[in-house]
Known about the structure:
The chain is an alpha+beta fold. A seven-stranded antiparallel sheet has the order 1-7-6-5-4-3-2. It is globular. Helix 1 crosses helix 4. The chain is 31% helix and 38% strand. Strand 3 and strand 4 form a beta hairpin. The mean pLDDT is 89. The chain has one domain: Alpha-D-Glucose-1,6-Bisphosphate, Chain A, domain 4 (2-Layer Sandwich).
Amino acid sequence: MTAERIEDSIEIAAPPEAVWTVVSDLRRMGEWSPQCRRMHVFGGEVALGSRTFNLNRQGMLRWPTTSRVVVFEPGHEIAFRIGQNRTVWTYTLEPAASGTLLTESRTTPNGSGRASAFLVRHLLGGTETFEARLQRGIASTLERIKLEVERTAV
């Protein structure tokens, strides 16, 4: 059974505005995510309703997806829904003592669909293995974002 929510958080020693600049630039997702290697944003700037074409990778397996930005609250939250499996990926920023608490989550508010379940089961190692990999991927993504923001924030 697919987990409804997979998430992790990290504190970043920078103000929310600096974190937002990095997180909201979906074109850079391939720099952070170990699974999503590239996101192409159609129509220029990222905003509510923006659509993307994504290239994903796990080992030798490669697959494309599409997404649409479903939440866009500058300085606070951005979320996009993957068209092929209906999962929603969200980045939430909150002020913290050290700067910003950044949380990344993957939710399945409407399940992930039969086709996705089949592919996960037969090509991606099964649900438990795949979701454990997603959990580690979220932690890795957050660490990479933290390093970039703290390296470039003034």
